[in-house]
Amino acid sequence: MSHTPSRQDFDHYMAPNYAPQQVIPVRGEGSRLWDQQGREYIDFAGGIAVNSLGHCHPVLVEALKDQGEKLWHLSNVFTNEPALNLAKALVDRTFADKVFLCSSGGEANEAALKLARRWAVDHHGEHKDKIISFYQSFHGRTFFTVSVGGQPKYSQGFGPVPGGILHADYNDLESVRKLVGDDTCAIMVEPMQGEGGIVPGKQDFLQGLRDLCDEHNALLIFDEVQTGVGRSGELYAYKNYGITPDILTSAKSLGGGFPVGAMLATDAVAKSLVIGTHGSTYGGNALASAVALAAVEFIDTPEVLEGVKKRHDLFREHLETINRKHGVFKEIRGMGLLMGAQMSDAYEGRAKDILPLAIEEGLMALIAGPNVLRMAPSLVIPEADIAEGMARLERAIERLVAAA
């Protein structure tokens, strides 16, 4: 007997840790989606900054089909050509000398944190174990990464958190100076906080972190899970600042929708990840690596990266136009195609109320906390889709204002 799944099936069969919208998308093409009833939506959410080339981009589909007829998976007893090609592509395009492949951003950050601790033990001893990160940061859902993340709500209720983790204020270098010392093994930072509200790091703040790490023989880890692979207008956001980390993590846009993650590091640091110290069952999977390589090679071109910057300006212009009419935003910020609109005082905490209204108008968007409307669309979203999506967003905001 055939069965057409419904939203009620989620409540019946799935663990209750999510609260998805009522619509169930079944097909996507470019920056548009269609649900079970055939209704169309414009996608400004991008799977939370994952669908870097939209839905079913032909370059990624071709890579998946081609590899799917050759080789899917091998254990880490073997390597494979797609994984080696992806690693080479990432090394050739970044500061890094070595790559560890995994399946998600959380895994990539877990690997980065373990590597930092192992490196510190190898070079300085057991006492050098402190990790500094920032309030409102988000680094994943493993117990280590959620503890390093600066939002206690994600780690509460699971028992004692790992020790040696300190939190400072983002974009406040003095708050870091108060915590850093010779027992610091790493500072972990997002060059632009994503879940924390789409807050770009200041140039002098990030440079100051680099200087503090150098002064105290600590490692600088850039979490670029959300900002990486073209999202900021450069292949990785560290290039916007001219500041080189020791370790960088990547996922989300890296696979264009296929689960994949990577940790990139210099030779001097990566040497501590010796045989047996870490692993990932699906890391370096041939299917994921082939798709990720296709995504990286397509995105890392002047046409796409310059297009991201141009689209950023279009998004900002539309949002500012909407705001002049309705006064719902206090600030519009972000880099490239990761943008946030902070709600004005009159609409404090109301960002989440826009999402269901937008769905009804045929638009998918996101929030970054209760007070920031977030947009992370395809890096190649057509300008016509931007204009139509913004028209739908404005209708949703008009309804929000009318109901206030």
Automatic annotation (TrEMBL):
May also have succinyldiaminopimelate aminotransferase activity, thus carrying out the corresponding step in lysine biosynthesis. PANTHER family: AMINOTRANSFERASE CLASS III (PTHR11986), SUCCINYLORNITHINE TRANSAMINASE (PTHR11986:SF113). It catalyses: N(2)-acetyl-L-ornithine + 2-oxoglutarate = N-acetyl-L-glutamate 5-semialdehyde + L-glutamate. Pyridoxal 5'-phosphate binds at F138, D223, E224, V225, Q226, T281. Homodimer. Belongs to the class-III pyridoxal-phosphate-dependent aminotransferase family. ArgD subfamily. Keywords: Amino-acid biosynthesis, Aminotransferase, Arginine biosynthesis, Cytoplasm, Pyridoxal phosphate, Transferase. It is an enzyme of class 2 (transferase). It is found in: Cytoplasm. The modification N6-(pyridoxal phosphate)lysine is found at K252. PROSITE patterns: AA_TRANSFER_CLASS_3 (PS00600). GO terms for biological process: L-arginine biosynthetic process. The gene is argD. This is Acetylornithine aminotransferase. Its EC number is 2.6.1.11. GO terms for molecular function: identical protein binding; N2-acetyl-L-ornithine:2-oxoglutarate 5-aminotransferase activity; pyridoxal phosphate binding. InterPro entries: Ac/SucOrn_transaminase_bac (IPR017652), AcOrn/SuccOrn_fam (IPR004636), Aminotrans_3 (IPR005814), Aminotrans_3_PPA_site (IPR049704), Class-III_PLP-dep_AT (IPR050103), PyrdxlP-dep_Trfase (IPR015424), PyrdxlP-dep_Trfase_major (IPR015421), PyrdxlP-dep_Trfase_small (IPR015422). The lineage of its organism: Bacteria, Pseudomonadati, Pseudomonadota, Gammaproteobacteria, Oceanospirillales. Binds 1 pyridoxal phosphate per subunit. Pathway: Amino-acid biosynthesis; L-arginine biosynthesis; N(2)-acetyl-L-ornithine from L-glutamate: step 4/4. SUPFAM superfamilies: PLP-dependent transferases.
